[in-house]
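hiii so um. not sure if this is the right channel but i have a protein structure encoded as tokens and i wanna go backwards to a sequence. like what aa goes where. can anyone help
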């Protein structure tokens, strides 16, 4: 029976597909091989607190992981709801799990009803009425939702809309040695973090956050809601805690053991410290939400500057691999 227990939706979905084809990787290893770590500032409805994210764009982890390991990624997108289901059904009828991008608002087992079209889950079966999925542990792991609700979740339009995205992963004759794939992923992730396309991302995004926190605070219509939401997303929004830094820290620990690299071991120690600092950020944000004390903005701003210095140092070290 296929199963995979994960905390982040995309890596949980990948884990189900990878387990099916014979891999036994931890969620942290999947996240690292997919070059998942980053930082980004994204608009979020108002002029107040934007959405603060700790990973790369949706589906990029899946794409990068398959590239780094030499696996075949088969992706289907279509505007036709009927065709979208026929594609998925054909894989399921062949006893193959399928990755889906969904708007979680329509999934019947989600208790928090907000539109977010960047959610992922693996479908493992269906009957006349329901689809059977594997989602994150936070959502209960194995779940079911009606076929009608699944169709709505797949076809919902808006930000991050996946256009009925479905995908499967296959092994190939050109698979890459795991140690080689780890080094490739680490270096590429470092280059991405250190060379962001705009100031909203990577190390520049961390510095911009430090600079703009007070502006966001002043522009917020609901300080309590905005800062508590940001804090909650850092720790419990499918990040594995500490804005994905716990996952990357654990990946680095595995990577250091598999490669025997002292550089990776040293970077692991840095991310142990970084993860603790991200916990401090979320704690400070929650205090700001509760007290509306502007003095705490100075503390939070300094934490972002310190995290930037620490993580930029780590990423520069990885470039030497």
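sure thing!! here u go:
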């Amino acid at each position: 029976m296929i199963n995979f227990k994960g905390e982040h939706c995309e890596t949980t979905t990948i884990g189900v597909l990878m387990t099916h084809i014979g891999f036994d990787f931890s969620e942290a290893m999947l996240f690292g091989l997919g070059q998942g770590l980053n930082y980004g500032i994204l608009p979020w409805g108002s002029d107040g607190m934007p959405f603060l994210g700790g990973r790369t764009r949706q589906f990029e982890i899946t794409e990068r992981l398959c590239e780094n390991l030499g696996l075949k990624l088969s992706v289907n997108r279509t505007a036709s709801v009927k065709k979208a289901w026929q594609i998925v059904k054909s894989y399921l009828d062949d006893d193959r799990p399928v990755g889906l991008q969904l708007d979680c608002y329509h999934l019947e087992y989600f208790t928090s009803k907000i539109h977010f079209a960047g959610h992922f889950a693996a479908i493992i079966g269906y009957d006349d009425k329901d689809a059977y999925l594997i989602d994150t542990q936070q959502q209960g792991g194995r779940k079911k939702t009606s076929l009608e609700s699944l169709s709505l979740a797949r076809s919902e339009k808006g930000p991050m809309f996946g256009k009925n995205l479905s995908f499967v992963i296959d092994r190939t004759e050109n698979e890459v040695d795991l140690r080689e794939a780890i080094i490739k992923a680490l270096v590429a992730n470092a280059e991405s973090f250190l060379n962001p396309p705009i100031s909203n991302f990577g190390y520049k995004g961390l510095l911009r956050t430090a600079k703009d926190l007070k502006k966001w605070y002043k522009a917020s219509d609901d300080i309590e809601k905005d800062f508590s939401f940001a804090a909650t997303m850092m720790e419990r929004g499918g990040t594995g805690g500490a804005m994905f830094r716990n996952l990357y820290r654990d990946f680095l620990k595995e990577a250091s053991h598999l490669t025997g690299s002292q550089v990776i071991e040293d970077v692991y120690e840095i991310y142990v410290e970084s993860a603790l600092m991200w916990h401090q950020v979320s704690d400070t944000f929650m205090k700001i939400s509760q007290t509306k004390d502007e003095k705490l903005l100075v503390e939070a701003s300094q934490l972002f500057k310190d995290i930037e210095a620490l993580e930029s140092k780590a990423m520069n070290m990885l470039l030497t691999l």
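oh and The chain has a mean pLDDT of 96.
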